[in-house]
């Protein structure tokens, strides 16, 4: 999606929760993150107040069920949640576009040149087709779909992966363009499979997508091994999430619930943090108490 392709993305059920309260000065508290990684969050809050010519007298508390560096959009979800909570506290009424803009500003400090897909998905929720520079399109599902996520245990570095993929584009420009075109086609077919509830087709498309992303330099040995383990254990398909290079694998579990649980237990015993999520699920919500 960074290089002109259309991607499909979905919000998952694991969340980031942010509480914003009045304070004498700006403070940000999170026991789940490296203090160095809180700087982008601080910058987002400061920029929101600066735009309104006000001092950020607010205390931000962050809790999360999303692992950092897991390829699940945790940084974008955090930035969106911070902007939404602060907006609710101050009565600013930020709309979706403003939330995404704030989230993107924080993401740039974390990842360098993100596409915006994580921030957009976190703000909108649901399932979307996303192309950089265009209005995202919602994919309306007639019924919820259950997917499985397995964390490889290795943190990904989005900025490094963007550089690696850009290197492939520079070395093989025609091949890279063709891969982007096929990625756009696959995203559309995945949307159709989701709408039809065709899990076998969705799985095959996801596995193909993983192969395309691997050729573009986004995968590594550990992710390939995890995808292979998912497939050999009975999943209908699997692919890396996010920018790859670490992070997680998204899989279509076996249709039988007992078989699906058995796969998850097998992956967990192998050391992979594994959970199920239903899509679509809601995006950012904010309220005052």
Structural description of this entry:
- The chain is 46% helix and 17% strand.
- It is of the alpha+beta class.
- It folds into 2 domains: 7-130, 2-Layer Sandwich (Ribosomal Protein S5, domain 2), CATH 3.30.230; 140-279, Alpha-Beta Plaits, CATH 3.30.70.890.
- A 4-stranded antiparallel beta sheet has the order 8-9-7-10.
- Strand 5 and strand 6 (137-138) form a beta hairpin.
- Helix 1 (39-50) packs across helix 3 (96-111) and helix 2 crosses helix 4 (117-124).
- It starts with 6 loop residues before the first strand and ends in a 10-residue tail after the last strand.
- 42% of the residues are buried.
Order of helices and strands: EEEHEHHHEEEHHHHEEHE
CATH superfamily of the largest domain: GHMP kinase, C-terminal domain
Main pleated-sheet profile: 4 strands, antiparallel
Helix- and strand-based class?
A: alpha+beta
Roughly what is the average pLDDT, rounded to an integer?
89
The second-level CATH architecture of the largest domain is 2-Layer Sandwich
- Main-sheet strand order equals 8-9-7-10
Gap between N and C termini = 38 Å
Q: Indicate the percent of residues in helices.
A: 40-55%
CATH hierarchy class name of the largest domain:
Alpha Beta
Task: Name the beta content range.
Answer: 15-25%
Structural shape? globular
Annotation, overall tally of beta strands: 10
